[in-house]
Amino acid sequence: MLPVDLQILKYIFIEKPIYYFKMKPYFETEEYNNLCTYMENRGESNSSDFLKEREYTVFDLETTGFLPEIGHEVLSIGAVRIDGEGQKSGEMHQLIRPIRPVPNHILSLTNLSREDLEGAESFITGFQKFLSFSENSTLVAHPAHFDVRFLRAMVKRWKLPEYSPACIDSQMMAKYTLPGVSHRLDPLLNHFNIHNLERHHALNDATMTARLFTELLRIAEKDYFITSYSVLQQKINEQ
After folding, report:
1. Contact 81, 90 (CB under 8 A)
2. pTM to 2 decimals?
3. pLDDT score recorded for residue 45
4. Which of 13, 39, 109, 206 is the most buried (most CB within 10 A)?
């Protein structure tokens, strides 16, 4: 694998023009225009500030790398919809067809085949499904600073309207509520005896994170100050 600085140069001078050339036909489709309109008219989610009264979409991404700014892409989105008590009301798992070829080690890690991805939906279609599924909810990811940042970078690359969803970083929440426990996902799952599903599958990881988030929410709410979204975010930001 090339050093990051060479990856950046390769993306700017070689891959970015290729991306644009392959993405350009999508910009002229009705589906793309509909998505832009939907995002522009999408209202604020979760008018209530109380954690128990909110709906949550706990999600996870599988990607071709860690740096969307240099062309890494989303391969799949897994999401679970829960309420403030942790009751599940739905789930989704969507494969995304990438623009550029996927490295073999990523296919091996995610247990996806090139055939799986060739038959998958475009990012435009997959992201529309995710937006519809997560409408009027607060996003939760572990860690959110990766998954939400990745989606925002993809949105920018596809020249879509700005995407700034309400979200909770369950990794930082664990750091606040369980200071003596590693805030990585696997140790937290073991701490709460949450059944470990096959990793690096977006829906599996989202399912486990949803169970973890429910446990963290219960711990946070034992502190009578932590009953609102705004206060929880303040505490998380202090970490």
Report:
1. yes
2. 0.94
3. 63
4. 206
Give CA–CA dist 54/89, Å, rounded. Answer: 13
Structure tokens at 23: 């993405």
| Rounded Cα–Cα distance for residues 194 and 171 (Å) | 16
**Alpha helix segments (H runs only) across the chain:** 4-10, 16-27, 30-41, 104-110, 114-118, 123-133, 144-157, 170-177, 185-191, 202-222, 229-237
CA neighbor of 74 nearest in space, from 43, 110, 46? 110
**Among residues 94, 89, 164, 160, which one has the least CA distance to residue 122?**
94
Sorting pLDDT into bands at 50, 70 and 90, what band is 1?
low
Q: How far apart are CA 12 and CA 21, in angstroms?
A: 14
Domains for the chain: give ranges and CATH numbers. Answer: 4-237 (3.30.420.10)
**Element at 59 (helix H, strand E):** strand 55-63
Percentage above 90 pLDDT, the chain: 75
Beta bridge partners of 55: 83
The sheet carrying 138-141 orders its strands as 88-95, 74-83, 55-63, 138-141, 167-169
DSSP code, position 184 = S
Average pLDDT over residues 8-16: 84
| 76/112 Cα distance (integer angstroms) | 10
